[in-house]
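ugh ok fine here u go
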Amino acid sequence: MGMTDYRKRLESLQGLMEEKGLDLVVYGASPDFQYLTGTTVEWRKHRDLNYPADSVFVPREGEPIIMAGLGNTGKIKECWIADQRPLGMFEDLKPTVKKIMEALEYPETIGIGEYTWGSLVLAVANYSRGAKFRSAEGLMDKMRMIKDSYEIEKLKRVAKLTEAVMGKVIDEIDEEATSQGLNLKIEHLGRGLGATDVSFPTTAGFCKSGSEPVGVFNYEPEQKLETKTAIAFDIGFVLDDYCSDWGRSVYYGEPEEHIEKAYPALMTAVVETIDAMGDEVQRVDQIFDHIEKVCDREGYKDRLLERLPNRMVGHQIGIEVHEDPWLKPGSPQELVDGMVFCVEPKLWHKGEYYLRVEDMVLIKNGKAESLTTFDRELFQL
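structure:
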């Protein structure tokens, strides 16, 4: 925990509170809570096993106060925040909230963050003496967009783990493979390498060429793999509380020429766009345009637009797998050092193939560096 400057994060948040006129923000166990406190309090799943008391109270000036229910009282002991309010088994949170609000001298304008329990919000409101309430959702998004060196190292590690898993899985694909089986194998291998969770439901999607165009995938989960099938992988893990998100496609059997050329066209669009970042591509909303230009040159623009009519080709990544800003029109954010995002264009030809490439990309020294470098030539199995 000593590696990350949590006090700097606090100061940045308090600066934003000053700009927004917020006297206090309250975050329940959530991505923002994790980012600010550095604790291992769970928020990703099993909401019924978490505690409404798990929260942090951040005043515009002064020190924050952290509160936790019984199951997480041990986890906040290691936190850098000195003022800790642990609750015992079945202890009502309302008296503790009352004391916190008294200590904070009854702030007049209070922001509430995502994931905050209703019972906690009601307790804060009950002891706020008529304060005004506002949403604090997204308040820390710009702070979290720029990763520090320790966050970048964590993202690099989870990216390597993800590609190590796929190296094992792709080597084992045969006619006995099923979509469901590959999904389970991917998750099992990831946990075996140290992942604590998946960052979203794993996808190994099968699309048989020359089939009825019912959707992007046309196999049942337990249906065995047949020749002339495109397999699109979309997988991500959580390691050290940071996420990965990665994609590639392979083809089982002998592809027809238009399919054989489609995947290199998509890969070329990704690689050339990453190479152009910092030069021709300087803003988030220019990424799709560059991908489209290359796909058009390669003869696959229509297939790109078939799958991406909204022109959204990715997102930032970090504590959460999907963070703002998304890579789409209307996001004029400049590419700046410390951003880490996923570029994920797809090509779709109904009834023939669904192909995807997704790489995690770091902006460093004004240029882009791909954190995922899995074999870009591999396609036909």
